[in-house]
Amino acid sequence: MNFKEFLQQNIVILDGGMGTLLQERGLQPGEQPERWNLSHPEDITAIHKAYFDNGSNVVNTNTFGANLLHYDEAELTAVIQAAVANAQKARELSSAPQEKFIALDIGPTGRLLKPLGDLDFEEAVTVFAKTAQIGAQCGVDLVMIETMNDSYETKAALLAVKETCDLPVLVSNAYTDKGKLMTGASPAAMTAMLESMGADAIGVNCSFGPDKLQPIVEEYLRCASIPVILKANAGMPTNVGGKTLYNILPPSFADITARMVQKGVRVAGGCCGTTPEYIKELCEQIDDIRLRLPRDESLVMTIDKKNTTVISSYTDAVTFADDPVLIGERINPTGKKRLKEALRNNELDYILSEGLKQQSAGAQVLDVNVGLPEIDEPAMLTKVVYELQAIIDLPLQIDTSDPVAMEQALRVYNGKPLINSVNGKQESMDAIFPLMKKYGGTAIALTLDENGIPDTVEGRVAIAKRIIDTAASYGIDKKDLIFDTLAMAVSADNNAAKVTLGSLNVIRHELGAHTSLGVSNISFGLPQRDIVNATFFALALENGLSAAIMNPFSAEMMKTYYAYRVLKGLDENCTDYIAFADTVQSNITINEKAASGAVDEQLTLRGAVTKGLKEPAAKLCKELLQTVEPLTIVNEHIIPALDEVGREYEQGRVYLPGLLMSAEAAKCAFEEIKATLSDSGGKTKCAFVIATVHGDIHDIGKNIVKLLLENYGFAVSDLGKDVPPEEIVKETVRLHAPLVGLSALMTTTVPAMEETIRQLRVSAPWAKIVVGGAVMTKEYAASIGADQYAKDAMDTVRYAETVNDSMVND
């Protein structure tokens, strides 16, 4: 039986942790665990065999960090070949009776992708593809992508595997205590993207014990139509007598995990701190549940197909259901002279500001169309999508008739996009459906074909049925099609609205598919178009309109939207309507002018920084420097903006990308004032030495902390990653630095952090030491001698500020 068949019919038991077991066998701080595949094959084989012997169906190869960023190609090939051979030998030696499979383990690169970091998306794809290629050639049964804390890197890894081989792929993400990925994605958003891209199972691993991960897993179970994974830690780490222990013992771990299996989890195992004993207990608990079930029931239940029409951004999912979705239409050059000018002149700032304004006006999705004959549409569309998704957390509707532009934009899109569009022409379906299958997405399907737009309801519905049937032949479900029944100008045809609305009603209520319309097309050629548009919008909503491509600055359209939601019972306690009504009078004039392009929001330096607009921040800072002292700009404009975004981040209203883009905008402003600030006698804050500890090659967290500290004026000395304790001590002494920041992602590198702290206490006793990373807790940090545990980058900044302030006051 192959793994894909086994997955569909069984509860799959994974293995547990590897790093802690290697430490017990002598792995030293600074040693790369993957090299043990070559130097200690007997130890690796013994660990795999122990997991098989205790009930694991799947063991992961010891290749978590095996990629081209950490090994040259020759060594990478040797490491992976040895890793697979060790797992295969363990399978041969194990006499346990269950089905046994070998998964190629792929972990994160340890670097953030652009624009938040320095790793290009295509470079990440190449890195992951090489690992997948070598593993597939060695004969693994499946691929396990795990511990990913960024949706964009997760997409790069899954895309790389899918482009390299046809093996089943399991994808598991690591969540923060806020129930989001580090870069902000919710389980619903990850489900939308990964399921649409063809992952075979999805879920969560690492971070916490199974008790803390339960709410996240339950959200996966609510959203997913494919098997869900739970691979939790053995609780939280503690330091006892210099040894790392975890606070959940095997019986409790197994009990909690088994109860989640009862709720629907189909793939279960352990992560940091778990051992073969944990897997043995888990298998026994699951067997016990089976024994207690009535004879006519089975623990292996058919997974419910959720039949949900959903798209996503890098943070959130938007579902198409009874509550209408508003798609902002303003990033489309048709009839917009200023936008055409911006596209010709590559004025991305104007385009980004249009997106931000539509988001503020209530749009839930942004249409992105850059089609002008005189520009390179594929390059421009890709660039606009890439830049928009860096500063806006709304899903995007990628709108183009050019298949090349469509594919390039889909490739870089961070989430599950709305695709505009496909139609009933065979040529269109053959171009778009393969792209949807590869990259994921939900398509706007236009009810036209080779014969044009039918002038009857029956004709448009027939095209919709044909599109549904053809999509099914590509493996695309009806839930990923949203039908546009094409609003035509009533000024040219008195029956245009009736046919559009009639077609919409049948498709929504008889075919059971969702619908959309470009609402304003109905009034083309008429005066006072908003009057007609708003009434047509109301009629369309009553006939089953799921989504409207419309102008969110139209006061009449927004009145219809909020009133409809109240009357349909979609606005609990009329909260949204009341908030809208409270502001409508003051906003009508400016919204109507904005709709015609007659007014533009006045952007300040503070606003540019909070919104993450880099070029405007630099430009506005340069203008301010003509009349305002540099230090005044820093203290009254830039730092307050950073503080505002920092507070929003700490309260969960802004996610890491927003925090980083704000910091980048501030950095651009600082570049303008750096020379002037130096001339005016401005002083930086105290020195701060920062490093990722010896043996750890992950520097995402460190780089984020560095960027924020520099924006707050600290003199940061970044020693990089995999830094021996002696180098950190030497730099701290050289600078007499009052602050040292240490980062560690992996359990295996915590001893190196503890040793660094020990040496700092001897040679630099004045230094305050702040630590962070995925394996850290407040209690664990205290037990290894740190002064402060920082749960995130802003926490580090706040602590550094208190230390600096105390020095100034002294």
Question: What's the tally of helices?
Answer: 30
* Radius of gyration from CA coordinates: 28 Å
Main sheet: strands, sense, barrel: 8 strands, parallel
Strand order of the largest sheet: 1-10-7-6-5-4-3-2
Give the tally of β-strands. 25
Q: Describe the global form.
A: globular
Describe the structure concisely:
The chain is an alpha/beta fold.
Descriptive account of the structure:
The structure is a single chain. This protein has 30 helices and 25 strands. It has 810 residues and is α/β, with parallel strands linked by helices. An eight-stranded parallel sheet has the order 1-10-7-6-5-4-3-2. The protein has an eight-stranded parallel barrel with strand order 13-14-15-16-17-18-19-20, surrounded by six helices. A five-stranded parallel sheet has the order 22-21-23-24-25, with helices on both faces. The longest helix has 24 residues, at 656-679.
Describe the protein's topology.
Elements: H1 3-9, E1 12-13, H2 19-24, H3 36-39, H4 41-53, E2 58-60, H5 73-93, E3 101-106, H6 121-137, E4 142-148, H7 151-164, E5 169-173, H8 187-197, E6 201-205, H9 210-223, E7 228-232, E8 237-240, E9 243-246, H10 250-263, E10 267-270, H11 276-292, E11 309-312, E12 317-320, E13 325-331, H12 337-344, H13 348-361, E14 365-368, H14 377-391, E15 396-399, H15 403-412, E16 418-423, H16 426-439, E17 442-446, H17 457-473, E18 481-484, H18 496-509, E19 514-518, H19 529-542, E20 547-550, H20 555-567, H21 575-595, H22 605-611, H23 614-624, H24 630-650, H25 656-679, E21 687-692, H26 700-711, E22 715-718, H27 725-735, E23 739-743, H28 750-763, E24 768-772, H29 778-783, E25 788-789, H30 793-809
Parallel strand pairs: 1-10, 2-3, 3-4, 4-5, 5-6, 6-7, 7-10, 13-14, 13-20, 14-15, 15-16, 16-17, 17-18, 18-19, 19-20, 21-22, 21-23, 23-24, 24-25
Antiparallel strand pairs: 8-9, 11-12
Helix pairs in contact: 4-5, 6-7, 7-8, 8-9, 9-10, 10-11, 13-14, 14-15, 15-16, 17-18, 19-20, 20-21, 22-23, 22-24, 22-25, 23-25, 24-25, 25-26, 26-30, 27-28
